[in-house]
Amino acid sequence: MTGTINVSVSGDGKPLAGWRVLVPRGGPWGDAVAAALRSRGATPVIAPMINFAPADDQAALESALEKLGRGEFDWVTLTSATTVDVLSTYGATIPASTKVAAVGETTAAALTAAGYHVDIVPSEENSARGLLEEWEAATEGQKGLRVLALRSAIAKQVLSVGLQRIGHHVEAVVAYRTVGVPIADKVVDDVRAGNVSAVLVTSGSVAEQVQQQLGPIPEQTLVAAIGPQTQRDAAKLGLRVDVVAVERSAESLIDAVVNAALARA
Questions:
Q1: Which residues cross the membrane (predicted)?
Q2: What is the mean pLDDT of each run of 10 residues along the chain (265 residues)?
């Protein structure tokens, strides 16, 4: 099942006509974003820059996903869109009885695109800390919930430790290791030559790969970040960001690019 990103159309409906936009993620999320860009007239360049490698403890992950499928958890928390890729790769099932917490709009969009449901997305800060701060209000103060916390190998256990401290039963499992993916030389050459109009940056990990593989980005190329946290991560890496999505969603990210294009017209 593939989700869609709804976009509004203004003017002739093709405000990004002539624009080539680099989409740094593949899979259902990347396909949905590419389709939305095409609806605005852009030519998407799908060039996945990050992927996941198996977690060191595969047995623990497989066991956790089996329990998830059997409905043994009240909640499952996902802290990145890559975690959704892991779920899809393993053919994991999330029962309707198990609620899903996504750390941000990128993760939520990936879940929807992959056919999973989403129950909580932080309204303020797209981070594990932001999700933790809104947890009690979102769950109406329930205690003793059984929670599966899936994370990357490098992620700090802010969420799982925090949930344990407020009285929940948490099984924290490493779902994957993040690795950079070398992109095609032609894409690198096109970006450096200024032949790519915009680059989408959807996470700190993506920002790192954009800077390492493509930096410095030409001044005329628009760099669009999906939210303030990603913008901050990019800044730490020395990556320039020109526009930031208002609502930390793929749709809002595309809108930010459209607004920039209209301003340049």
A1: none
A2: 38 85 90 95 96 89 97 94 90 97 86 92 78 88 94 85 94 92 96 97 93 96 92 95 89 95 90
